[in-house]
Amino acid sequence: MEFKDFIKEVERNIKDYLPEKWKNEEVSVRQQLKNNGIQLYGMSIRIPGSDLTPQIYLDNAYQSYNMGVSMEEILKKLAEQYLKSVETAPKLGIHNFDYENWKDSLFMCAINADKNRKLLSSVPHQMVEDLAVVYRYLIEEDAGIFGSILVNNDHLKYWNIDAEMLHEQAEKSMKQLMPYEFHSMDYVIADMMGCPIEESQLSMENSFMFVLSNSKKWQGASYLFCPDVLEAVSKELGGNYLILPSSIHELVVIREEKERGIEDLKDIVCDINQSQVDEEERLSNEVYRYDAETRSISMVSDGEMQLGMHLEM
Fold first, then answer.
1. What pTM does this model have?
2. Do 253 and 289 meet the contact criterion of CB atoms below 8 Å apart?
């Protein structure tokens, strides 16, 4: 069965696996633009008596179908996923959409500008080199499972604010929602292995590779757009440093005096992106330099420094 026929099957039959009160609701499947230009198909059904329309993506379900899972089983699973979304929806309170109700939930996301040109045409953003920062507001339920909604240009009109005000508020609230964390690579690896180690000032001084992320380990690369955080890292390391964009969730930082050839570092970034990072979570294949004197970030290459945007916003 081709994907378009699979979608039609879902649209025709999914309500057979939902409670009776959904029988008059419309099932809609539309292509959704995700990070890095990835297109996914989302199934939306309005919750009866509500303006909320939870969305379930069908791409993985189609892969399961091609691997031999029956259509009946897939429809059951999709219905279960949808109903779980419905259970959390009343907790979100998104019916009251005033800016004052949502401003403290705003945060920033770093993305690749070139791969997201279409997306950037419809959302407020700022640029640093080949990267862009966009804005989302956080939706979190009691169990700690969280999601987010992208802020678009229509949000600004509805909220009657400008892009600069949005940026300032998102930077402020992000530091409360998901404070930045800066650790040595040894500390991060030990923590991932379940064997946390003590991180002293001496151990930081003896390290040459570090990780900049946040308390949620999610969208942590956005701290690349926070001048005070970059300056704090500079003070911790004693000057300039290089930045390797590990993913949209974290940045690898290297002391400048410890760097290898830039092309070697770029090769490492490319290899990691291709082999270990999902396409939707890739940030860039470039290497960046933070200049402590000018407080600016520049994209670098062998033997030359390209002018970057000053981060004083």
1. 0.81
2. no
